[in-house]
Amino acid sequence: MIDVSENKLQGRLPRSLANCVMLEFIVLSDNQFNDVFPFWLGNLPELKLLAMRHNGFYGVIGKPKKNLCFPELRILDLSHNNFSGKFPFEFIFSGNAMRGITASYSTYMETYSNLKVSAYVQPFTYEYSNTMTNKGVDRYYEKVQEDLGVVDISSNKFEGTIPEFMWKLKGLRFLNISHNIFTGYIPSILGNLALLESLDLSQNKLCGGIPHQFTQLTFLAEFNVSHNNLTGPIPHERQFTTFDHTSYEGNPGLCGDALPKKCGINPKTPLPPTATFEENDSDFGIEVDWKFVLAGFASGLVVGVVLADTVITRRHEWIIEIVAKLIKVLRRRPIS
């Protein structure tokens, strides 16, 4: 292992590191290195952790000239550098062990050695430790689990779309691509990363909606898509009921229970009044109903008086004549 973190080292990385074929753990974080991405380290067959955060690494990480694919890499931290262009997920992780990691691992990353003192040989074990950003907070890990899959490329200038290739990294637990220039939609297929615990896509230029498939991520404890161009409703099932507005703020097109903007309600369109019935006689609705009742009562009274006057004051013969005419009219109507 090599850990030179938290110093003031400058310049380029020594290319001789490519000859250290037994290296499993390289920590270069918190220095002043000024170099391009060391693709030549991808030839190290045992390398599991590569941490380069908080340095001056720069440039586009292009396709390697040789088949250098970091076969055992589980933790990659490139955060807080000056990388640009598209991030080549498919080249760095094409034959990667993270694709086969399961939750069955219970051991920690460690190395074994023998210390020879005089005529005695003393075996010892050294467990790897590292500082990583987990759920938005820098955490120091005294031990690093073998099954921990981490990709942190935050705070660079990476651009382009999020590749669907990412779903193949089955062992991925922490994914942080925040503070970059990623565009396009969030791939719904990322909902197949069953072990994912932390997902930070904030401070990019992503558009579209939050895939409903993310509700399948039952281990997800930290979720942040703030300050993008997302639209539509936020999921409101399972673990998504635990995330507050800070996970979504800065997306005017989003709506949901965690936000001031609720879904399905247009504030400019008044809701139709609900029909209510009260016993108070002074209510406007009740007054209107009584007006119709009184109008109907009055018209019925008039018709009744007229008919009564006709029946009482007219001659009997005249009534018989009217009845006869009515019978003739009824006989002419077709039978339905």
UniProtKB/TrEMBL annotation:
Membrane topology reported for the UniProt record: Single-pass type I membrane protein
Domain of life: Eukaryota
Location of the protein in the cell: Cell membrane
Keywords annotated in UniProt: Cell membrane, Glycoprotein, Leucine-rich repeat, Membrane, Receptor, Repeat, Transmembrane, Transmembrane helix
InterPro entries on file: Leu-rich_rpt, LRR_dom_sf
Family note: Belongs to the RLP family.
Annotated protein name in UniProt: Putative leucine-rich repeat domain, L domain-containing protein
Species in which this protein is naturally found: Rosa chinensis
